[in-house]
């Protein structure tokens, strides 16, 4: 059997020029941002003896009088309208608990899902008892953020045919800060697979569904075997996503597609090799730059 | 004193350091992709790995949840191969439970837990090689991991052990000194404001010497904080250049 082994390599050191240390917009916890009292305290800051101080390591962002510090890496901070992919962790009275990479588990109320039988169906006590038949622990769903509670927990809804239980596919977890906010987070890629780019950093890759299957919506999941070619496309996309994430490239339909195209000359498993990753990402970035202008 | 001479007449210690000299500190942030935050830190021959998960929903006993702030859950452990003789250390032995508790108290003083009501922050620290000052190395490694996770803190928490020998305070003790009968003191400091997060001492020491010892510990902690600061800034720089 052919094995591919490699020795640990030296990390590339980013040269720190003198100006790099002077960059005023990078702060660490405890750094005083300003002692001017005219500013408002945003996320990632606190007031200590009337001085605005950073509490996380990251970039300072200033909007008018509001000062925030955005860390490089955090958990998902949901906003109303965000598309998320999550996993059911618990079934409770009238609600499901969903793990969405947020700081508290999100809530999906029975009253904010579409049950089979149309919009106007009444929810009876019987529905409460059969909740587990619709969604049970471990199921993956796509949903939209309906509201944010005062303690930061999210309330989700699936009141549209595009949301609901997810069937066969691959889940990729990456940092939420790498997902680019867009009008649509559901894409049917021309390479033969579809992708849901959840704002919470959970990305769902699945074979593009036929027209009828899509209309069934809701809680029906197809268990038909997926063809080998579809599975290969999905695996390639998954490795491409990991490559883009490793090089901190923003994810959206165009960047994913370009990355897929640049990876075609390599076999699927080779994409994960660091040198191939670098090459593919470089090509992708070049294409993106060309497209921009 | 029997056996070892901890401080020579010329003012050098067993490993050739001066009294106030720290051991070499090397660190790296973001060593694991799976965790929310992680860091690896070496201080001389003591090596520690810290991992942070959270803030997340409370797992297990829901009743532990606090309605106004996050709970911090610390777990300290030592690798079987970390000391001179191999020893299996099951979880929950008395020494590591005590150490976990100290770490918890230290980080409750530094992390802004009131921003995350009803959630939990897990800090797991493992000693890979033990050569004295385990508590302080764990605190320093965990600080970097918490910063890597993007969890808000008042300031860095830096810790250092100091000892008192022949009317002199020795900074950053190694194992030979710790076990050589020095009265040692561990101190965790928020360096910018000079607030003390935790002081721990279980040896005997004359009251008159306590102030000088604490003073020496604070200076040592500030030295450590400078090194940590450099590591964090370097990490930040690398992270933000990649993004452009």
Automatic annotation (TrEMBL), chain A:
SUPFAM superfamilies: Eukaryotic type KH-domain (KH-domain type I), Nucleic acid-binding proteins, Ribosomal L27 protein-like. CDD domains: KH-I_Rrp4_eukar, S1_Rrp4. Residues 169-207 form the K Homology domain. It comes from the Eukaryota. The keyword Nucleus applies. Keywords: Cytoplasm, Exosome, Nucleus, Phosphoprotein, RNA-binding, rRNA processing. Signal peptide: none annotated. Residues 26-63 form the Exosome complex component N-terminal domain. GO terms for cellular component: cytoplasmic exosome (RNase complex); nuclear exosome (RNase complex); nucleolus. Its main location: cytoplasm. It is found in: Cytoplasm; Nucleus, Nucleolus. Residues 75-147 form the RRP4 S1 domain. Pfam families: ECR1_N, KH_6, S1_RRP4. InterPro entries: Exosome_cplx_N_dom (IPR025721), Exosome_RNA_bind1/RRP40/RRP4 (IPR026699), KH_dom_type_1 (IPR004088), KH_dom_type_1_sf (IPR036612), NA-bd_OB-fold (IPR012340), S1_RRP4 (IPR048565). GO terms for biological process: CUT catabolic process; exonucleolytic trimming to generate mature 3'-end of 5.8S rRNA from tricistronic rRNA transcript (SSU-rRNA, 5.8S rRNA, LSU-rRNA); neural retina development; nuclear polyadenylation-dependent rRNA catabolic process; nuclear-transcribed mRNA catabolic process; poly(A)-dependent snoRNA 3'-end processing; ribonucleotide metabolic process; spinal cord development. GO terms for molecular function: RNA binding. Component of the RNA exosome core complex (Exo-9), composed of EXOSC1, EXOSC2, EXOSC3, EXOSC4, EXOSC5, EXOSC6, EXOSC7, EXOSC8 and EXOSC9; within the complex interacts with EXOSC4 and EXOSC7. The catalytically inactive RNA exosome core complex (Exo-9) associates with the catalytic subunit EXOSC10/RRP6. Exo-9 may associate with DIS3 to form the nucleolar exosome complex, or DIS3L to form the cytoplasmic exosome complex. Exo-9 is formed by a hexameric base ring consisting of the heterodimers EXOSC4-EXOSC9, EXOSC5-EXOSC8 and EXOSC6-EXOSC7, and a cap ring consisting of EXOSC1, EXOSC2 and EXOSC3. Belongs to the RRP4 family. This is Exosome complex component RRP4. It comes from Oryzias latipes (Japanese rice fish). The gene is EXOSC2.
Automatic annotation (TrEMBL), chain B:
Coiled coil: none annotated. Its main location: cytoplasm. InterPro entries: ExoRNase_PH_dom1, ExoRNase_PH_dom2, ExoRNase_PH_dom2_sf, PNPase/RNase_PH_dom_sf, Ribosomal_Su5_D2-typ_SF, RNase_PH. The keyword Chloroplast does not apply. One of its GO terms (cellular component) is nucleolus. Residues 21-152, 155-219 form the Exoribonuclease phosphorolytic domain. Component of the RNA exosome core complex (Exo-9), composed of EXOSC1, EXOSC2, EXOSC3, EXOSC4, EXOSC5, EXOSC6, EXOSC7, EXOSC8 and EXOSC9; within the complex interacts with EXOSC2, EXOSC7 and EXOSC9. The catalytically inactive RNA exosome core complex (Exo-9) associates with the catalytic subunit EXOSC10/RRP6. Exo-9 may associate with DIS3 to form the nucleolar exosome complex, or DIS3L to form the cytoplasmic exosome complex. This is Exosome complex component RRP41. It comes from Oryzias latipes (Japanese rice fish).
């Amino acid at each position: 059997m052919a094995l591919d082994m490699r020795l640990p390599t030296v990390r590339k050191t980013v040269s720190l020029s003198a100006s790099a240390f002077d960059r005023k917009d990078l702060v660490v916890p405890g750094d005083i941002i300003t002692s001017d009292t005219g500013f408002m305290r945003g996320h990632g800051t606190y007031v200590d003896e009337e001085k605005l101080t950073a509490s996380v390591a990251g970039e300072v962002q200033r909007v008018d009088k509001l000062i925030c510090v955005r860390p490089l890496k955090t958990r998902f901070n949901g906003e109303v309208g965000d598309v998320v992919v999550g996993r059911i962790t618990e079934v409770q009275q009238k609600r499901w608990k969903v793990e969405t990479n947020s700081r508290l588990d999100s809530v999906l109320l029975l009253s904010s899902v579409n049950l089979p039988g149309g919009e106007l169906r009444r929810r009876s006590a019987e529905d409460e008892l059969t909740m587990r038949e619709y969604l049970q622990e471990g199921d993956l769903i796509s949903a939209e953020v309906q509201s944010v509670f005062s303690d930061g927990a999210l309330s989700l809804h699936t009141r549209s045919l595009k949301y609901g239980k997810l069937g066969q596919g691959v889940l990729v977890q990456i940092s939420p800060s790498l997902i680019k906010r867009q009008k649509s987070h559901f894409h049917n890629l021309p390479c033969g697979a579809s992708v849901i780019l959840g704002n919470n950093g959970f990305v769902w890759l699945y074979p593009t569904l036929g027209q009828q299957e899509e209309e069934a919506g809701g809680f029906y999941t197809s268990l038909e075997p997926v063809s080998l070619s579809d599975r290969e496309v999905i695996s390639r996309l998954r490795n491409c996503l990991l490559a883009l994430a490793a090089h901190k490239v923003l994810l959206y339909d165009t960047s994913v597609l370009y990355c897929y195209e640049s990876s075609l000359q390599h076999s699927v498993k080779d994409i994960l090799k660091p040198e191939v990753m670098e090459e593919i990402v470089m090509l992708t970035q070049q294409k993106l730059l060309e497209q921009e202008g | 004193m029997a056996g070892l001479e901890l401080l020579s007449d010329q003012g050098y210690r067993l490993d050739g350091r001066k009294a106030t000299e720290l051991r070499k500190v090397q660190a790296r942030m973001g060593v694991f992709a799976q965790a929310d935050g992680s860091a690896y830190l070496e201080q001389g021959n003591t090596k520690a790995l810290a991992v942070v998960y959270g803030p997340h929903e409370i797992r297990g006993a829901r009743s532990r949840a606090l309605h106004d702030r996050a709970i911090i859950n610390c777990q300290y452990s030592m690798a079987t191969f970390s000391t001179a003789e191999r020893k299996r250390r099951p979880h929950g032995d008395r020494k590591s439970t005590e150490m976990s508790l100290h770490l918890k108290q230290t980080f409750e003083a530094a992390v802004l837990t009131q921003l995350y009501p009803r959630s939990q922050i897990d800090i797991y620290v493992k000693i890979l090689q033990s050569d004295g000052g385990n508590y302080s190395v764990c605190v320093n490694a965990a600080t970097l991991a918490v910063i890597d996770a993007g969890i808000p803190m008042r300031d860095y928490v830096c810790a250092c052990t100091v000892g008192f020998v022949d009317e002199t305070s020795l900074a950053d003790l190694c194992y030979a000194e710790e076990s050589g009968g020095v009265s040692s003191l561990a101190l965790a400091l928020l360096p910018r404001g000079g607030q003390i997060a935790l002081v721990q001492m279980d040896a005997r020491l004359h009251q008159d010497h306590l102030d000088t010892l604490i003073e020496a510990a604070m200076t040592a902690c500030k030295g450590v904080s400078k090194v940590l600061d450099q590591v964090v800034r370097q990490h930040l720089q690398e992270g933000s250049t990649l993004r452009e």
